[in-house]
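Journal club side-thread
Mid-discussion, someone asked how the predicted structure for our own chain would compare to the paper's figures. Pasting it here so we can look after the session.
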Amino acid sequence: MKNDKLKSQYRINEQIRVREVRIVGDEGSSVVPTRDALNMAHEQGVDLVEISPNANPPVCRLIDYSKFLYQQKKRQKEMKAKQVKVEVKEIRFGPQTDEHDYQFKLKHAKEFLEEGNKVRAYVFFRGRSILFKEQGEVLLLRFANDLEEVGKVESMPSLEGKKMFLYLAPKKAGTKKMSQQARDREAAETEAKEAKKAQAQQASKVESEDEMPANGGLFANAKISADALKKLTEDKD
């Protein structure tokens, strides 16, 4: 079904019924009569594929149609793989959630947002607990405030039946969560690079010191030579 849908998007060979087309390739592009373009495709043993029907004139390529469809399918897969899949994660509270439970859920919500997911937090009012709806609203507003560095509020707390909802969206695109092993490996590689860099700097410093002349260097030697010349002149006088 997917291949049939992809095929229906493009006209090929005799299906192209315009007077002239623009042929594009590695060497540039040129406008030629459609009949000449079909003859070129036949001579090269390929197909004339219309890739941009709305252009004036329509843009075509000389390529094997099966190969063209494969390239398009591969490109679509790559684009889909690059897209960040956004999920909506739910966090549930009671109107009288204790501090330990609140911090536990806050931690998870932060992780969800950092991974690029949305968060739907809600307070569930059971029975007569609906009397504490103001307390639930305060809890959700605190929740939004504690997550302001990683999430933005999409809608303020609103009561729907026995639930009060708050919606949060990530502030930046999600990143794939690294495993502990991957983080340790990255830290080890960084540490090794820093150690190698420090070792190279130390070796360069030692080499520079070894190349320095004795008795204080060139300046000191020049000063000694000048003093000797002065003394020799005084002795002659």
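Post-session note: Strands lie at 20-25, 28-33, 47-52, 59-63, 88-93, 118-124, 151-160, 163-170.
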